Amino acid sequence: MTITRRGFSAALGAGIAMPAVWRSASAQGATIKIGMVLPVTGPAADSGRYALIGAKLAIEQVNKAGGILGKQIELITEDDQTTNPGAVLAFSKLASQSDIVAFLGSIRSTQNHAMAPDILKTAKPVMFGGTDPALTHMGNQWLFRCRPNDSYSGRVLADFGMKTLGKKNWAIVHSTDAFGTAGGKALSEAITKGGGTIAIDQGYANQSQDFTPVVLAVKQSGADILGSYFTFENDLGIFARQLRQLGVNIPYVGSPSIVNVVATKLAGPALYNTYGVADYAEESSDASKAFGKAYRDVAKAAPDNQASWTYDAITILAKAMNSAKTTEPKAVRDAILAIKGHPGAEGEYNFDQNGDGLHGYNVVKNEKGNIVFDKHIEFTD
Amino acid sequence: MDIALQLLFTGIGIGAVYALVALGFVLIFRATNVVNFAQGEFSMVAAFLMVVCAVDLELPYWLSFLIALGGMALLGMIFNLGVYYPLRHRSFLPVIISTIGASIFLANATLALYGPQPQVLPGWFETPGIQVGPVYLDSQYLLIIAVTIVLVAFQYWFFEHTLIGKKLQATSQDKEMASLLGIPVARMIMITFIYSALIGGIAGILVAPVLFVSIQMGSSIALKAFAATIIGGFGDVAGAIIGGLALGIIETFGAAYISVPYKDGFAFLVLVLFLIFRPQGIFGERVAEKA
Fold it and tell me: What's the ipTM?
């Protein structure tokens, strides 16, 4: 075989052009890529593992049902190291990949706040699980929440404590991060509005090794009920144990972390007979039960909100893109906001114009380590 | 008054933990003139070894404790050979960076082997604590305080009344002179690393039932212990103990009477004040250089 000059030039040209053609073909995509920021290292690494299982479970189900626009979903993950700078770095790494069409942010409000400016610049939908109400009220149109926000949790905690348990004089203990501060404020406002009083409002810094001063302050305050917003399970475990050791046995209602799997395991009997608001409660609906069963089969562990919100985030994105018939960000945004009556693991999604999908909470009780569904409280205002 | 007593007990308990980890810092600093930033990870690794033996394998607690200590002795040996020994003739900076690298490696290796989930390690005693008048005494904190006292007494006897202790002291004071006197310097440094890994491990095992066993448990304690060594006077054993206890008490009282969210702030405020007004610490001597 002889190589002509023309043949050589054609082969050389094709060789040079091939990578670009290949890249272009890849960008158009055999798959629909979704980016996910999650903690793989750091104090919340454990919850990151659950979040990943939830997302993968949804992807498997969506892909089995035909995927998005006939293509399979591919999940691209980045470690946020459980820190704000880590979350910003992880998101910018994902955002630099132009073929990622949407993202899953963090369950931690403080990290979503840190990423928010980059999310605004990227201008693609980001589903998230943080519950600080401000996140959907600060003019960032690309943030969509897959859990109820803390204005609802505060109202449900206050409502349950005052009307069901009949207690009026509150001690509030909350983390001083974005989640804890917003939650504590929402609870405080709801108590005051409902006619209750605040005996003590005590913040603490995350990753404390000792809560004796906090527990003693609660004990001295004369409060007849305790409400809390804890960010990390370790902190909650230490606090709950010291609470019982130092003889504080007033009724205790807490934010969702009080009923998550890790916290109940760490605290053990110290959290028995406490109540919590839970966005995910297995017995609350048929969709929640179905998710719980599928999750148990895969994870061999009890399901909680760490996995349910990522599961819902993927199914909502798939539903929105299939209904918009495109992955173009603006059209997907409109399709998400148009979702009404979607049965998710967390509850029924009815997106409002702020990007909040859920508007109520379940009340659950820790009965000797088992989380038992009590009731669901939904708000329309 | 009742509250102050309760706070004092808790402050001493948490301070004893800082003191134990600080002891490890001091011993290695005296022997090698470098700060071992993996000292906190020694505590974490020992706590995980206890979980594996006592919880996963359901071995008796005392046997698990001995196995964990054996593991820590081995880790101290490997640490010396892999992290310090190859760099022993270099300045302090590469060695410090090497210990930081080892700290990251130990944390991530444990994460990869055991997973990120925090674990519960039962305490030594069935009874969680006892009520003495108005004060609740957590049995684990009582044990931590008792062990700290025993270890300090042991350390005094070991360094002041045994030949090997005196050889270790000679090595830490002047390696060249010790070598000229026939003291096997490399072996003495090896013993120091093993001993400080054991002390760090004991601290981790003791504190695990209180703070739970997690990848981060070592680093959060080590930071305070490091501050304690500076406050006490770097390189001074009594200083590490006093510094640790002082830090525990200051942050507990500061949190109770001034502000809970700034609890860590009080500890580091004291550290900054010492660095400004008494950089040699409580027991340290001012080092003057000739012009």
Answer: 0.85
